[in-house]
User: Fold this.
Amino acid sequence: MSLKKKTKKTILQLGHNSGIISALANFSSENFLTVLNYHRVDYPENRSWLDPSLISATPEDFEAQMQLLAKRYSPVSIKAVLDALSERKKLPKKAVLVTVDDGYRDFDDYIFPIASRYGIKPLLFVPTAYPNGGEFWWDKLYWAVKNWEGDKLETPYGVFSIATTTEREVALKLLRIAIKKGDFKESMSLVDSLYNESKPQVKKDTTDILSWDELRVLSNNGADIAAHTHNHPLLTKIPFEEACAEIHQSLEVIRKELAQDLPVFAFPDGQPEFFSTKLIEFLKKEKVQFAVTTVDRNAKLQESNKLFFPRVGVYKSLRLPAFSYRLTPFYKTLGSS
Ligand SMILES: [Zn+2]
Assistant:
């Protein structure tokens, strides 16, 4: 680690221990909000067939993060965010909303029970085609590249040497980028053919995603669940009409399956290249009140940004001081940690 990085880490640690970092969050404007974005909370050795890069935290780290939120911040529910938007009630200072994408089983195993212990209500975004046995393309790709026999992988995106573990990791990274850049349907058929040709080495569990029955139980126990498209496509990489149908269908399926009607939506892989003004206009037509992206920052909640609100990503390597810094208005204003 460089001296500059080491110094920064020490300052963050001291700031965290002394409570200065969390005090900095008091300097935020009215209705300032941090929306945290988690995917999976699990141990990498559990469900080792799934792409480990989707693990946002171990259960222990997640618990420490929730404990910190409860102690030094103001965790809010999606209802509080909607109330603030309709001007019924302002958000408290240091407001933080915990969101979780994709509906993996660990929401039930770890996220919901741990968050509930600290009085925190996480919001889960579910792509509605996946409960009852779906598999995501990134997990299929991970499986295929990890288990591909031989030391070369030939694809339309290039020939990759996969003789070593590092080479396989590099190939996976490059393929992920190429897939997101390419035509979405062609990319998906490539992933499927690689996946079907790769030779399974361990028996896979097929219940990685929560079923509708399980989601209903969670919903009845107070979990907030909202739409995240039907098939989780990259919305700007498919025809506009199909993208609209994806959004509409997912809102409808959530209503039908869960008897919940949260006017809330998360863009799949919500980087700026994967949402658009036209799609935001469509969300208005669908009466969506709040939609989130994965643009990594926090912001003042306003009418002008409520349909493409940024979220602060949580990653496995994130230590508690850096996590805390991300909840202050200085994150991305003074630079990332
Ligand atoms: Zn997603």
In short: The longest helix spans residues 240-258. The pocket of zinc ion is lined by residues 101-102, 228, 232, 268 (CB under 6 Å).
